[in-house]
Design a protein that fits this description.
alpha+beta, archaeoglobus fulgidus dsm 4304 fold, 31% strand
Length: 322
């Protein structure tokens, strides 16, 4: 029987890392699929899309736990995540959203489904296991679950008629996905270009982009196409990579389709650059910032959920002791 014990620390502490699933290793890049000329920015000449749907997700650790499975101890957590869409077609409208909850244990250990009363609601945490024994594994698994749900809701938006879907963060290029979903990456944690190509980034003006480049696997097969775009002007005190995002698409439809998409996406993005009040301005797009706040509200009150989980674990302990 698997028993769970709460970690008394707040989930904000003791997790001094970021999930490694934010970016996957990129062994090879081909910068010449559109052009070999990286000396001048490209100013899009394509038409603006009729509407853009944005997809994002937020996740939260409600309570970290230590699980005991017949004397074997593994780390785990109770976590929530929410994904949703906001439709921008002249006005901005929140659309579909999903709230999911999981109890995730490492080391291949699976907990029971947990239903917890929280105010007038009952919250159900579905059991998930992660094979890794790394204490960070459950948090990385929560991130993976959220990314998979983002991909699902992005695909659903396309079936509903969305002309273009922009997803916050990188795509899973090695997995199938519908077109056209574009990943918009606002945080750079890996260098994709050689210095002679990267120099072009500083020269980009709002609405400009770099040439499209291929992201390849070790065999040299294109798994996706990517480009950098500037969405806001650089202020004098900022470094010259501020206001840049990296966009990526899957390779399926080919490089010509990716170039056409790069034209329309790059032209559209400056309209959605983040507002000064956003601490991640300007890369955190305004619809994404609004969607994040909306989704966090729908995950419920963090303090109430934590208290409910602690009470539930205490009751279980009393039952076992009795």
């Amino acid at each position: 029987m698997v028993t769970l014990r709460a970690d008394p620390w707040s989930p904000d502490f003791g997790m001094g890392f970021e999930a490694s699933t934010e970016e996957t290793p990129v062994p090879r890049v081909d910068p010449s699929v559109e052009t070999a000329n990286w000396t001048r920015p490209i100013t899009p000449s394509g038409h603006l899309p009729d509407g853009v749907w944005f997809v994002d997700g937020v996740r939260r650790v409600e309570l970290r736990v230590l699980a005991d499975d017949g004397g074997r101890r593994v780390h785990g957590l109770f976590g929530s995540f929410a994904v949703g869409t906001v439709r921008c077609d002249g006005t901005a409208t929140f659309d579909e959203h999903r709230v999911c909850r999981s109890v995730i244990l490492g080391g291949g250990v699976l907990a029971d489904r947990a239903s917890v009363g929280c105010g007038p609601a009952t919250l159900t945490f579905e059991p998930v296991t992660d094979q890794r024994i790394d204490p960070n594994g459950p948090l990385e698994r929560l991130q993976e679950l959220m990314r998979a749900e983002e991909q699902s809701i992005a695909s659903h938006a396309l079936t509903l008629g969305a002309p273009l879907v922009l997803a916050d963060g990188p795509l899973r290029l090695n997995e199938p996905g519908q077109w056209p979903v574009v990943g918009v990456v606002k945080r750079f944690v890996r260098r994709y270009l050689e210095p002679e190509h990267e120099r072009l980034l500083a020269a980009l003006r709002p609405g400009d982009r770099t040439p499209v480049f291929a992201v390849e696997d070790q065999a040299g097969t294109a798994r996706g196409f990517s480009w950098y775009a500037r969405i806001a002007p650089v202020r004098p005190v900022w470094h010259d990579h501020a206001g840049l995002v990296r966009c990526e698409v899957r390779a399926g439809p080919g490089v010509d389709a990716a170039i056409a998409l790069a034209e329309s996406v790059t032209a559209a993005l400056p309209r959605f650059a983040g507002r000064p009040a956003d601490p991640r301005t300007p890369q955190n797009l305004t619809p994404i910032a609004g969607l994040e706040s909306w989704l966090r509200h729908r995950m419920g009150n963090r303090a109430m959920i934590r208290r409910a989980l602690m009470s539930s674990l205490a009751e279980q302990r009393e039952v076992m002791a009795g």
